[in-house]
């Protein structure tokens, strides 16, 4: 080795080590990440930035791409467009950015120097292609090029463009070699790689991660391009969260690729005058590709008037590119000689330089040349033209040659190739299966009367020989048949054990049902109606009587009406009249007596009110007294006077403001006076003349708007002296014009009815839209109701429920809710609203059915409240098809926008299609309501229902938004005693900054969302600003002046009309850059600019601090925020954070802060010390008193604040007192006033103690109990069920005033609060979740105004949340293979019941939300037919659609699709039988192997960090297994075979669909829609070494030599031609890992099974601590389902009697076992009609499975032939088919081996092994949470 070589290697090694040690790699390995759906869960319609070179690297790394040596530039372009189209098709909104100094990043690290130039040319050509052609079809998708991320141009772009996040690559290699090295932890093997390639990889990786860090520290998240999955309408990828903004990473000079950027900055020039000389000699002008080819060749390929032979070949190749159909460009590979490669490399360098020059783009635009440089070079075509000089010699070639001659100033002679290209070869021998003579795929016979109707358009060849199972499968199927058909007697001992267990189960089920009922009644007691009052149950009766009860309400008004005197002189009936007169006189006397009692009570109340210390206390007590007037009689007599007293108190406070000249400060109080005066217009009772006079005086004195005063009825003196009786000389007027005062201060108090009118159907006056809903329900029409939170949707459900209850005792309504919390609440509301008696036992008004628990028999109740999964199981249960399912009359889908979720959205969509009755779909947040409505209309129409959409866009109460900035210093010394009175909102409060909604419209491109709502003062401020900044060209019409636009007394409906007009004008200004829109935004956002400046200053100051500490600053500063809310009486409040762990941390931190401050106060407070002394004295006195009982103490001593010790005389006096001493309940450990947020007035201590007792028994952690005592709770899905329920009840009752929650409280939960706080940012804080959560504030009937506060959320994110439109709902492909199997089970086992037939017809009528038209329907039908074919080939269906063999087990695992089919393959083909045969001898070994196998199939999660530094830093230092070891080879062999069979089936699906339904060629680029090539084969191309065009694979991918043979399902789905629906997610297969997976699988399940270490799961496996319980519980449920299914199938006890809706994970089971320990041993007194039916009968809901040998179909071969074959010679075909079948059977027998298990014992061994695996896994699971 020479010294230079040694030095070079040493330098390279040094550079590699330097790159490996770069700090950004370590930083990146520790970065938090989540895999989310960036469309539905994250971005929605938000604009994000795609880093262009990341997409190029992703495309150039495609294993299908032949770039070296084939140089398939068009294929590379297709790969880029295919990716971008995937984003656009899923409604993503993005821009693309390329950075000049990143140009090298697109080159795969393994590329050679020669290839490098090809990739760089491809980069330049693709950028040029997209910049010209993309805007023509997708103008909103902008493409930008910048010098670097640090350039001024990019800084300006970021400033003017509001991007949400960046999508980029992280540089991780996906090569198989590096993956194997990493998985094996052989880091030393990396040294064997080429040093240069390794250095390039490290450089690329480091630069990408520096790019990510650059964006992260500026507040942007990053979503990864590599590892991205297309999952139906979802885009699942890794999102890196920006929680480490504190660290800044510098860009080393060595990483800037300065050498490249110098060459790529556009400094290269060319002879523009020469370019101008190039003219086409024909009518067809030269395209950009042709011009570039001519110009490049002229610079190096022409010598002395002669074009080099390589140049001639290249010119011929260029001529063919425009004429040759793309399908005919699938050419054999020909190896080029070195000289030709050198020529091509030179052409590549020069053409790239020309395109990079600044003048090229301008020149091409001036010439209007067609931009086709994306197809500049085809390496295979060039080699073919070089091999045969005649190829390409056509008229276009001559035109190009002439153009070249004009440029060179001479006639050009071309030298034809001599054809002697060395190394000619075809290294891709054609596969016989890919050529035209390939035998067509034949499907197995299938005929079913219901499905045949839909499948009739699908015409396929039939394989009449049938499918013959392998010898192993035949053994297993015989065993299956044996178990299923066996009637052997069950062991008597086992029967006794099972009987005893069944009795025990029924006992606990009955007790559990009673206990839950008791809980539910308590829960119901905490609920309130729309006006904040407790719900009163209504007795419902069935039949005509129900209609008679409605008009009873008006009769009560008779109490207040004087009976008319009977006319005199009418003797007829005189006795009757006398009786009536006597009755009337008696009633009058009684009323007078009762009236006096009421007045006496009021006088007493007035006396106590006047003793209250402060006017606010008087007002509040008077308000409470008003609420006690709970009869029409009391209200008629006293309501007006009580309201006048409240007004009197307010006026007294206003008088004080006027005397002190602080009217401005008292304007909120004046607004409350306005509201009080206005309230008199709605009084139902008598308003006397005196009261009316006082009201008129008030309006006049304060110069209020001309409010309506009731007509006086009689008169009587009031019982107090009115405040304005003696103030004639004082000036009490409000210092604002009446209209301005209303708009700025009275908006929350405006009359809010919208076309309301009385309606006998409901106990309130519904608005117009609500009456429309009632009419549609009465007409039994389906409904889609879209209305914001607090608009009044709740009544809809209960009106429909009441109808069902009143109709018969048999009708059913199902209420589907997305969360268990909402299920509980709805059931409790039904409990609180309705009661009904039934003739027969077993019936109930309502029932709950979730996987966690049941209350009442789900098939015996009339209102079933459940979750989507359970309803689907019930609807698909054959046993229900002829009974329960037919009785369902309504299904209500609450929060129906959940159809868009990645997790369960598919179930929602399937349910909407399966619904057997009219539906009511409710939502507040649908981004594309009309499109969603159109789809629902078509689905309902298919089953004979009409659907109507009712949309109401207005909230009942307004929301006011604020940003909170915490104080720089804070010392907590206790909560203040006094609270603000009469103030709404948080304006002017320290730290709170008002956000005008229009101020958030900072991004014009985003436009204005339809649901951007403005309250009255927002409209006033906007109007003032628009008037101020109007110009002659942009005027504000005078009709918008509130003086003209609004009446004297403003109502909410008036504001809505005004708001609409203002927003219409504002939209016009927003759309015009010349308008004063920016000035309006600037003025309205002025208060926020200081906030942004302060926030940036704080962030800058924290740059050098620890990033994680800074990221949780919102946790530390929550207490000062809550203190300010407490001062303003703006609690209760809910704090939303979407991280379970942070929610708990925030609660714990708040509780600790309060506790520590309290401790400090106690240590320094004399008052506290004196109180303890008094308490000690009392205890001594009690002890001394002995049997005389505890001494009593007067209220005076207990509450008067006297610090003196109690004397003996005091104690004796208190002993004589009959009142209980407050010292008896005093506990020095209880939170002290001022150091908790709890409102003890709302609950008695006994009630609290009962709740705490229940929680203590359930081992709820002490800190959570302490937090509850201080009025703070936590709510998320991971908390104990009872604890969550207690938190909800205590919050509703008003005791808890602060709850920290995730999104569990955002979906429809009735938890009314005054303020919602968004604390901290999150990936899940999206436009959708923001609207859902914010809607909890200001709920109807509780608050006139809701506050929304942003804390720890950047201003850019705040702007985005408020100004973003809701994301569109996208659907899913609902016809999954599992669903098809379950439908056949339903159809077969229900004997083709009408319900089953109807369900199938409905499902197949409109199968997908975003597909439309006949062609799409045909796609689905073909897909369905091949799903059936798959089930047939897997021996799960027979030829008539009857389920076979293990169909039940697969159906029960429906929630794991597609893993269930991989599991079935291993079960069917004997893998589990062989493995488990030695479970008794090698139990540990068998279970470990079984666990590895299961971890490969279920709960699959991908690791992001597939890099050696992560292995080095984390894995090697941890005992954990992080990357899942390979699946056992025997299992791999079976799965490969299964996947290969599945691949054949779905390849045939694409082929047959293309042949039957697609007539157009696949010659258009997917994104830009540019057509490639000509339509017919030119003569000059006849000698090309063409291969057969592909039918299934895309013609663009085929350019790289690929045929219609596919390596994997992923290969098929990614590279299929256009026009065919094929989603990888719905193909029944699981990709083998590691050979079919780009990213390593996380070994978290296997690692937990081996070690049981939860901390390791969080640290090494990166499973978030809040998610650990859920992922383990999900896997436990899989094991439970398998064990239960096999036991049930084999008719073994005890599992066989279990209903599959009862199957749960061990986490849920353990929680129920704990709950059972708390059940009372005696009846609780809440026995219901259905408590005895807690355990349903065998198979009541689970599908029954028809079990037969798979070969049963053969016996019916003749019948099959008759139904499928119309040929005349069918007997011969039957004979041939029988011969083929026998041949297959013989082959299967010859290749089969004797099973390793004992005949008949195989399934028992499998069941035993899975039971053992389940027991061991669950044991560790239980231990983890013990």
Automatic annotation (TrEMBL):
Q: Name one GO cellular component term.
A: cytoplasm
Q: Which InterPro entries match?
A: DEAD/DEAH_box_helicase_dom, Helicase_ATP-bd, Helicase_C-like, P-loop_NTPase, PIN-like_DDX60, SKI2_subfamily_helicases, WHD_DDX60
Ranges for the region named Disordered are: 418-437, 548-576, 1184-1204, 1700-1729
Q: Which UniProt keywords apply?
A: ATP-binding, Coiled coil, Helicase, Hydrolase, Nucleotide-binding
Q: Which residues form a coiled coil?
A: 1767-1794
Q: What Gene3D superfamilies is this protein classified in?
A: P-loop containing nucleotide triphosphate hydrolases
According to the entry, every stretch annotated as the Helicase ATP-binding domain falls at 774-944
* Domain (Helicase C-terminal) ranges: 1208-1387
Q: Which PROSITE patterns match?
A: HELICASE_ATP_BIND_1, HELICASE_CTER
**What GO molecular function terms would the record report?**
ATP binding; helicase activity; hydrolase activity; nucleic acid binding
Has keyword Membrane? no
Could you tell me which Pfam families the record lists for this protein? DEAD, Helicase_C, PIN-like_DDX60, WHD_DDX60
The residue ranges flagged as biased composition, category Basic residues, are 1184-1198
The answer, when asked if Coiled coil is one of the entry's keywords, is: yes
Protein name per UniProt: DEAD/DEAH box helicase-like protein
Which organism is the protein's source?
A: Clohesyomyces aquaticus
């Amino acid at each position: 080795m020479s010294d230079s070589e040694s030095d070079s290697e040493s330098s390279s090694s040094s550079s590699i080590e330097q790159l490996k040690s770069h700090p950004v790699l370590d930083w990146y390995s520790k970065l938090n990440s989540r895999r989310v759906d960036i469309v539905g869960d994250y971005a929605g319609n938000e604009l994000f930035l795609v880093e262009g070179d990341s997409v190029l690297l992703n495309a150039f790394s495609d294993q299908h791409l032949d770039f070296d040596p084939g140089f398939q530039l068009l294929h590379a372009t297709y790969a880029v467009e295919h990716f971008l189209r995937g984003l656009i098709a899923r409604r993503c909104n993005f821009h693309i950015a390329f950075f000049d100094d990143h140009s090298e990043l697109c080159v795969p690290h393994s590329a050679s120097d020669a290839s490098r130039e090809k990739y760089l040319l491809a980069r330049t050509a693709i950028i040029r292609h997209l910049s010209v052609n993309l805007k023509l079809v997708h103008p909103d998708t902008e493409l930008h090029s910048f010098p670097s991320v640090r350039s001024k141009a990019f800084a300006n772009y970021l400033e003017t463009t509001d991007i949400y996040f960046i999508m980029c690559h992280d540089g991780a290699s996906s090569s198989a070699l590096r993956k194997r090295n990493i998985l094996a932890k052989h880091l030393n093997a990396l040294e064997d790689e080429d040093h240069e390639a390794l250095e390039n990889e490290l450089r690329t990786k480091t630069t990408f991660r520096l790019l990510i860090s650059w964006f992260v520290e500026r507040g942007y998240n990053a979503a990864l391009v590599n590892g991205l999955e297309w999952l139906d309408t979802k885009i699942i990828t890794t999102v890196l969260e920006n929680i480490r903004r504190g660290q800044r990473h510098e860009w080393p000079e060595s990483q800037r690729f300065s050498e490249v950027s110098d060459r790529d900055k556009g400094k290269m020039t060319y002879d523009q005058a020469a370019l101008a000389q190039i003219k086409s000699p024909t009518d067809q002008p030269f395209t950009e590709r042709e011009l570039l080819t001519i110009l490049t060749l002229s610079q190096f390929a022409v010598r002395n008037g002669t074009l080099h032979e390589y140049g001639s070949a290249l010119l011929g190749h260029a001529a063919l590119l425009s004429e040759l159909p793309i399908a005919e460009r699938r050419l054999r590979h020909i190896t080029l000689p070195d000289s030709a490669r050198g020529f091509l490399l030179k052409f590549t360098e020069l053409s790239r330089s020309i395109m990079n020059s600044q003048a090229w783009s301008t020149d091409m635009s001036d010439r209007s040349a067609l931009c086709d440089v994306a197809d500049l070079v085809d390496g295979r075509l060039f080699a073919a033209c070089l091999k045969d000089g005649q190829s390409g010699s056509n008229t276009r070639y001559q035109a190009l040659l002439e153009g070249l001659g004009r440029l060179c100033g001479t006639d050009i002679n071309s030298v034809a190739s001599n054809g002697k290209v060395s190394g000619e070869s075809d290294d891709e021998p054609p596969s016989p299966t890919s050529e035209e003579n390939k035998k067509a795929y034949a499907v197995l016979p299938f005929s079913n009367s219901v499905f045949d109707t839909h499948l009739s358009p699908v015409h396929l060849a039939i394989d009449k020989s049938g499918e013959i199972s392998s010898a192993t499968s035949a053994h297993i199927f015989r065993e299956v048949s044996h178990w299923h058909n066996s009637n052997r007697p069950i062991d008597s001992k086992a029967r006794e054990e099972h009987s005893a267990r069944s009795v025990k189960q029924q006992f606990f089920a009955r007790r559990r049902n009673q206990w839950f009922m008791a809980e539910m009644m308590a829960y119901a007691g905490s609920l309130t109606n729309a006006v904040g009052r407790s719900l009163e149950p209504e007795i419902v009766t069935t039949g005509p009587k129900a209609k008679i009860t409605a008009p009873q309400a008006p009769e009560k008004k008779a109490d207040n009406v004087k009976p008319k005197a009977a006319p005199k002189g009418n003797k007829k009936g005189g006795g009757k009249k006398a009786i009536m007169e006597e009755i009337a006189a008696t009633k009058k006397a009684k009323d007078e007596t009762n009236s006096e009692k009421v007045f006496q009570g009021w006088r007493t109340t007035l006396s106590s009110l006047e003793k209250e210390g402060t006017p606010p206390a008087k007002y509040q007590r008077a308000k409470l007294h008003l609420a006690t007037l709970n009869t029409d009689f009391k209200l008629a007599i006293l309501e007006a006077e009580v309201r006048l007293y409240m007004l009197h108190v307010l006026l007294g406070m206003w008088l004080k403001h006027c005397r002190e000249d602080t009217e401005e400060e008292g304007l909120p109080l004046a607004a409350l006076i306005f509201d009080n005066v206005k309230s008199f217009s709605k009084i139902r009772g008598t308003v006397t003349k005196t009261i009316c006079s006082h009201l008129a005086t008030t309006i006049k004195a304060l110069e209020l708007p001309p409010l309506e005063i009731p007509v006086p009825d009689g008169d009587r003196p009031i019982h107090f002296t009115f405040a304005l009786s003696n103030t004639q000389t004082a000036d009490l007027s409000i210092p604002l014009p009446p209209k301005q005062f209303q708009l700025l201060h009275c908006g929350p108090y405006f009359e809010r009815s919208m076309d309301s009118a009385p309606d006998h159907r409901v106990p309130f006056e519904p608005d117009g839209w609500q009456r429309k809903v009632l009419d549609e329900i009465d007409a039994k029409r389906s409904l889609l109701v879209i209305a914001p939170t607090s608009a009044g949707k709740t009544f809809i459900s209960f009106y429909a429920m009441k109808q069902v209850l009143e109709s018969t005792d048999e009708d059913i309504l199902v209420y589907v809710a997305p969360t268990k919390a909402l299920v509980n609440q709805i059931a409790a509301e039904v409990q609180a609203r309705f009661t009904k008696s039934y003739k027969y036992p077993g019936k109930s008004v309502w029932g709950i059915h979730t996987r966690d628990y049941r209350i009442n028999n789900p098939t015996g109740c009339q209102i079933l409240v459940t979750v989507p999964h359970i309803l689907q199981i019930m609807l698909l249960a054959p046993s229900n098809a002829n009974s329960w399912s037919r009785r369902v009359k309504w299904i209500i889908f609450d929060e129906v926008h959940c159809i868009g979720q990645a997790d369960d959205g598919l179930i929602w969509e399937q349910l909407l299609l399966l619904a057997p009755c009219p539906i009511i779909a409710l939502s507040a947040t649908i981004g594309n309501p009309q499109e969603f409505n159109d789809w629902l209309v078509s689905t309902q129409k298919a089953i004979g229902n009409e659907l109507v959409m009712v949309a109401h866009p207005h909230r009942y109460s307004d929301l006011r938004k604020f940003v909170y900035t915490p104080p720089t210093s804070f010392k907590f010394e206790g909560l203040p005693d006094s609270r603000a009175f009469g103030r709404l909102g948080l304006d002017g409060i320290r730290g709170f900054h008002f956000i005008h909604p229009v101020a958030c419209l900072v991004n014009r491109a985003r436009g204005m969302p339809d649901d951007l709502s403005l309250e009255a003062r927002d409209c006033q401020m906007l109007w003032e600003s628009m008037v101020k900044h109007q110009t002659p060209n942009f005027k504000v019409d005078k009709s918008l002046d509130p003086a003209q636009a609004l009446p004297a007394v403003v109502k909410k409906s008036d504001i809505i009309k005004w708001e609409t007009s203002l927003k219409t004008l504002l939209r016009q200004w927003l759309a015009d850059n010349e308008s004063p829109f920016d000035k309006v935004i600037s003025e309205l956002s002025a208060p926020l600019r200081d906030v942004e400046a302060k926030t940036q200053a704080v962030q800058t100051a924290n740059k050098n601090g620890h990033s994680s500490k800074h990221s949780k600053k919102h946790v530390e500063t929550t207490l000062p925020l809550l203190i300010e809310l407490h001062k303003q009486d703006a609690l209760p409040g809910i704090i939303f954070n979407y991280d379970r762990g942070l929610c708990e941390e925030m609660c714990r931190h708040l509780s600790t802060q309060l506790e520590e401050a309290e401790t400090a106060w106690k240590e320094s407070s004399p008052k506290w010390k004196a109180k303890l002394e008094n308490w000690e004295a009392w205890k001594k006195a009690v002890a001394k008193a002995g049997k005389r009982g505890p001494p009593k103490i007067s209220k005076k001593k207990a509450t008067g604040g006297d610090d003196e010790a109690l004397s003996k005389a005091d104690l004796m006096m208190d002993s004589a007192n009959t009142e209980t001493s407050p010292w008896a309940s005093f506990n020095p450990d209880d939170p002290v006033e001022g150091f908790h947020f709890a409102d003890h007035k709302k609950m008695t201590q006994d009630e609290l103690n009962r709740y705490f007792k229940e929680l203590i028994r359930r081992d709820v952690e002490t800190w959570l109990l302490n937090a509850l005592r201080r009025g703070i709770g936590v709510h998320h899905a991971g908390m104990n069920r009872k604890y969550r329920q207690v938190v909800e009840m205590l919050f509703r009752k008003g005791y808890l005033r602060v709850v920290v929650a995730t999104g569990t409280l955002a979906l429809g939960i009735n938890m009314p609060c005054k303020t919602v706080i968004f604390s901290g940012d999150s990936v899940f804080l999206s436009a959708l979740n923001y609207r859902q959560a914010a809607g909890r504030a200001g709920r109807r009937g509780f608050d006139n105004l809701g506050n929304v506060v942003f804390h720890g959320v950047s201003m850019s994110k705040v702007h985005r949340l408020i100004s973003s439109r809701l994301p569109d709902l996208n659907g899913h492909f609902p016809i999954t293979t599992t669903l098809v199997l379950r439908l056949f089970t339903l159809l077969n086992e229900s004997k083709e019941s009408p319900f089953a037939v109807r369900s199938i017809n409905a499902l197949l009528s409109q199968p997908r939300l975003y597909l439309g038209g006949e062609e799409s329907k045909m796609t689905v039908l073909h897909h369905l037919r091949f799903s059936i074919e798959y089930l047939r080939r897997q021996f799960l269906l027979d030829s008539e659609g009857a389920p076979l063999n293990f169909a039940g087990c697969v159906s029960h695992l429906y929630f794991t699709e597609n893993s269930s089919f991989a599991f079935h393959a291993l079960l069917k083909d004997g893998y589990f039988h062989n493995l488990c045969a030695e479970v008794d001898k090698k139990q540990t070994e068998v279970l470990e192997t079984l666990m590895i196998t299961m971890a490969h199939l279920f709960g699959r999660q991908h690791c992001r960090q597939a890099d050696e530094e992560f292995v080095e830093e984390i894995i090697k230092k941890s005992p954990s297994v992080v990357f899942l070891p390979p699946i056992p080879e025997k299992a791999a062999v079976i799965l490969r075979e299964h996947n290969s069979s599945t691949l054949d089936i779905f390849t045939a699906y694409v082929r047959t669909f293309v042949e039957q339904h697609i007539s157009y060629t696949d010659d258009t680029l997917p994104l830009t829609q540019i057509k490639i090539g000509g339509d017919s084969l030119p003569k000059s191309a006849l000698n090309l070494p063409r291969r057969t065009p592909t039918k299934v694979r895309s013609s663009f991918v085929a350019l790289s030599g690929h045929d219609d043979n596919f390596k994997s399902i992923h290969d098929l789905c990614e590279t299929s031609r256009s026009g065919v629906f094929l989603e990888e997610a719905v193909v029944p297969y699981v990709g083998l890992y590691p050979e079919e997976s780009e990213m390593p699988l996380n070994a978290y399940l296997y690692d937990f099974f081996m070690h049981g270490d939860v901390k390791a799961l969080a640290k090494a496996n990166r499973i978030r601590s809040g998610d650990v319980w859920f992922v383990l519980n999900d896997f436990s449920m899989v094991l439970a389902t398998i064990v239960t299914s096999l036991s049930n199938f084999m008719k073994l006890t005890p599992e066989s009697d279990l209903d599959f809706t009862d199957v749960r994970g061990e986490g849920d089971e353990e929680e129920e076992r704990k709950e059972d320990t708390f059940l009372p041993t005696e009846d609780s007194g809440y026995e219901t009609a259905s408590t005895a039916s807690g355990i349903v009968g065998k198979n009541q809901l689970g599908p029954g499975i028809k079990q037969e040998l798979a070969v049963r179909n053969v016996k019916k071969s003749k019948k099959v032939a008759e139904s499928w074959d119309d040929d005349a010679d069918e007997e011969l075909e039957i004979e041939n088919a029988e011969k083929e079948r026998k041949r297959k059977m013989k082959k299967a027998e010859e290749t089969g081996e004797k099973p390793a298990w004992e005949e008949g014992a195989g399934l028992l061994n499998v069941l035993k092994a899975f039971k053992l695996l389940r027991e061991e896994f669950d044991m560790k699971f239980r231990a983890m949470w013990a």
